[in-house]
Structures are given as structure tokens and as C-alpha cells.
Amino acid sequence: MLICNGVSINTISEIANTLAETFAKTSSCDNYTPTFQALKRREERVKLNFSSSNEEGYNSPLTLLELRVALHRSGNTAAGPDGLHYIMLRHLSESSILSLLLLFNRIWETQVFPTQWCHAHVLPFPKPGIQCSLYVDNVQISYSSKFLNVAERQIQTTINNFTKEQSSFVFSTEETVSVVFSRNRGVFPNPKLFIGRSLIKVVKEFKFLGLIFDQSLRFHRHLR
């Protein structure tokens, strides 16, 4: 399920269209400054010469040294559909790594890629850090992140799951608030969190279980 502007989007086609619209808006030229847009229009009118002898260094076949360096720098990421890990490739015999180099150069020269390389398997793993505490009729949900959009997405997912699993607990749209704790003194956008279709109000401070929390966690209200 995807929530956009307070509206729940459930079908695969609608979710895909919403994501496409968001990506298109984010990468749109309208986000550029007028100065850069003028520079972009001027530079795009310049005709480029794409003729090449194909003898440039970056068009040369891969070397054994380049392959070994690439394997050495690779991380121990998850294996693909073939089940091969980078650590396995780094420990290939001399004849096997030469065969691998031959394969890569054939792909490079013929520009014919394996069909499996055209597909990606995306597995969503929620990032750790969500904390939830339930005190009789009060609940707090918190998430720590350097990026507001990441925290916003994780907290929204938790709210959605919480409302589904905790059937005996009902969020009050009037009393539920959100606050961003940050050491950054600059201006940052307010998070957009929803309970159903109701936008959660963003405040600078709130009182929870007798304690007043402000954005800077200074507790100065309790020291007066």
C-alpha cells in the first residue's frame, strides 16, 4: 500500500504510476534555477561529434589486472540468481578467472548481455531503529535517522502496521502529534505522516507522561 497526499493507493498499476510521476517531477528541469536552465538550453544547441575510431582506451578489451582490481574492490554483497558470491569469484583458479575474463570481453565486444542481467530482485528490508512504547492509553513511536524522508517512511509504515495489528488501540487524530528532534538549526520541511487520510499535526513541543519535550530536547521548561 502507498499513501500519497493522504490517499491510499493499493493497485499495482496505480502505485507504479504514482512512483513514475514522483520520479518525473523530481528529475524535471523545472527544479533547475533559471540561470542553469538558460545554460542548459545554450549548451544543448551545440552539435556534438560522435564519430570515433573505437581505439580509445575506454573502448579497449578488459585486462586481467582490471578484472582482479574490480574483484578486490567488490564488497561481500548478496548473491544473484546464479548463487555466486564475490568472495567465490575472488578465489577462482587462474584458468577459471581467465575464462571469466574471456566471457566479460565477449559481452563487452558483442554488446549481448545475459537475459538474467536485465532483471533485478528488489527485497525490502525495513531499517532498524524504530522504537515503540505503549503506556496504557499513550503510545510513542520514534525513529533516528540523518535523513528526514527515511524516518518519515519508516514511521508511516509502523503507524500503518500498528493500526492493523493493534485492533484494541485506536489512534486519536486530534491528540496525535509529531515532532522532529534535531540539532540542526536550519529550516527543514515538516514530515507528512497520516492516520488513515488524516494528516498528523507537527508541533515544536509536546507533553508526554508529564514531561515536556521540545525540538532541541533542552528541557528548559522543567528548569524554570
Structure, explained:
This protein has helices at residues 12-26, 34-44, 64-73, 86-90, 94-110, 148-165; strands at 2-4, 7-9, 131-135, 138-142, 177-178, 194-195, 198-199, 201-202, 205-208, 211-214. By secondary structure, it is an alpha+beta fold.
Features:
two-stranded antiparallel ribbon, 224 residues, elongated, alpha+beta
Summarize the structure.
This protein has six helices and ten strands, in the order ββαααααββαββββββ. It has helices at 12-26, 34-44, 64-73, 86-90, 94-110, 148-165, and strands at 2-4, 7-9, 131-135, 138-142, 177-178, 194-195, 198-199, 201-202, 205-208, 211-214. This is Reverse transcriptase domain-containing protein.
Distance separating the two termini: 46 Å
Helix content: 25-40%
Widest beta sheet: strand line-up: 1-2
Summed over residues and divided by their number, the pLDDT gives a mean of 79
Quaternary state of this entry equals: single chain
How many DSSP-defined strands?
10
Helical stretch tally: 6
Radius of gyration: 26 Å
Find the structural class using helix and strand composition: alpha+beta
Give the strand content: 5-15%
What coarse outline follows from CA principal-axis ratios? elongated
Q: How many strands, which pairing sense, and closed or not: the largest β-sheet? A: 2 strands, antiparallel
